[in-house]
């Protein structure tokens, strides 16, 4: 047999855990989060693959149970980032002879406290839209690298968007326009050069900067000459506002709202009737990083 190298990891994917803190949090009588957690371990289990020797395997069932146990140990409300770091480090400190690295990916389901008669309800929640996403990588030295993000942040504006002056050839049929709808389901992922004071607060503020830059001021808005330019401005605004953020990746599908026209029956609906189409959609993505 020629020389070989086997790279391996194992873990448990998509463990759903809800954590309820029954004590008062931020003036509210309780606080609920739902996380969907995936764990992957780098560990010294080569003989399991090559010899069938399972003696060093931390069973994926044990990994699943640890997700719940660590959530229980977190007696105070905490951000998904802080939970991810705690969980990722747990595997290295609990199995120091076996586990040399861990990767935790999770997203938080957007349960929001409901408002009834203009007041926040004590124990009622409804599901919102976008998700808070987290990735934590714990290295063999015990250091944790954290990236945060948001996904499914669906944004739409009805005007102040166009696309013109693009390259044309024999297959180009798209017309120039300075008036179209612009819609996207934004996915953003950012990394930190230094740990922020509060991951949860930073998440809320980054989201706010992304949304504000996409739309512009409430009445006049801001003109978008392309998804590309708007994406770049959103990324720039985040780096300008948060010195602790080192790099941001944005993925912004262009979800087309195609004006409906029925020329054969002489009906033109284009100004106010559209077909929303998410397939196919444009894919526009970029990462903006600080130069060191
Ligand atoms: O903002 C846009 N960017 C593109 O690259 C593109 N391509 C396209 O067909 N429409 C658009 N819109």
Helices and strands in order:
Elements: E1 10-21, E2 31-43, H1 46-50, H2 60-73, H3 80-94, E3 99-109, E4 111-116, E5 119-127, E6 131-138, E7 144-157, E8 182-192, H4 199-215, H5 227-241, E9 245-251, E10 254-259, E11 261-262, E12 267-268, E13 274-282, E14 285-289
Antiparallel strand pairs: 1-2, 2-3, 3-6, 4-5, 6-7, 7-8, 8-9, 9-14, 10-13, 11-12
Description:
- The protein is an alpha+beta fold and 292 residues long.
- 23% of the residues lie in helices and 39% in strands.
- It has five helices and 14 strands.
- Strands 1-2-3-6-7-8-9-14 form an eight-stranded antiparallel beta sheet.
- Helix 2 crosses helix 3 (80-94).
- The chain starts with 9 loop residues before the first strand and ends with a strand.
- The model has no long low-confidence stretch (mean pLDDT 95).
- The structure holds uric acid.
- Residues 163, 174, 226-228, 254, 282 line the site of uric acid (URC).
